[in-house]
Amino acid sequence: MRAYRMGLLLIALSSALVLFASARTWVTVTYAEQGFPSVTLNFSGRQLDPLSAALGVAGVAAVLGIVSARGNVRRFFGVLVVLMGLGVFASSYSAGRAQGKAEVVSRLVADKLGRTVESFHVTMSAWPQISLVAALVLMVGGVLVAATTPSGTGMSPRYERAPDDKDLTTWQALDRGIDPTA
Fold this sequence. Notes:
By secondary structure, the chain is mainly α. The chain has a single domain (2-151), classed as Butyryl-CoA Dehydrogenase, subunit A, domain 3 (Up-down Bundle). The chain has helices at residues 2-23, 45-48, 51-68, 71-96, 102-113, 127-147, 170-175; strands at 25-31, 39-44, 121-124. Strands 2-1-3 form a 3-stranded antiparallel sheet. Helix 1 (2-23) packs antiparallel against helix 3 (51-68), helix 3 runs antiparallel to helix 4 (71-96) and helix 4 (71-96) packs antiparallel against helix 6 (127-147). It is elongated and about 85 Å long. The mean pLDDT is 84.
C-alpha cells in the first residue's frame, strides 16, 4: 500500500512538473541584422512541441482515474501512465534538441518577425532536461501503481449500487441517496 501511494504521489508531482516546465522558456533566439537592433525571442516548450504539456494534463487526470478505479483497471492506468511518460520523454527530447527542432524554431522566428531569416543564435535552457527527468519519474510512478495496486475498492462503497437496490421504489431509492433514473 505504501508503494502504491508513493506511485500516486510521483505521478501527480511529475505531471505537475511537466506542466510547469513546458510553460517555461526552452529556447531563446537572438537575431541581429546589420543596421538594426538585435531582436530576442523566447519560446516555451509548449510552443516547440505541445505534446508534453498535453500528456502532463493527462497524467494529472490519470491520478483521479487510478483513485476511483479498482484492480486490473488500476493496473491498466499504471501501464498507461508509463506510456505517457515515454511520450513526454520523447517529446521533451526532440523539443530540447536545437538541431532536431531547427525547422520549428525557424518557422516560429519567421512568424514573429514576419519574414524568413537565414541566421540567428539559439540558446537552450535547462527546462528540457528537467522535463526529461520528470518523464522518468512519471514512468516510475506508473510502474509502482501497476505493480503494487491494492485489490480493495476504489471509492467508497457509498457510491456503488448494492444488488438489492434494484427492487426499491422510487421514493425508497431517493431516501437512500440513490438516483432512481440510473
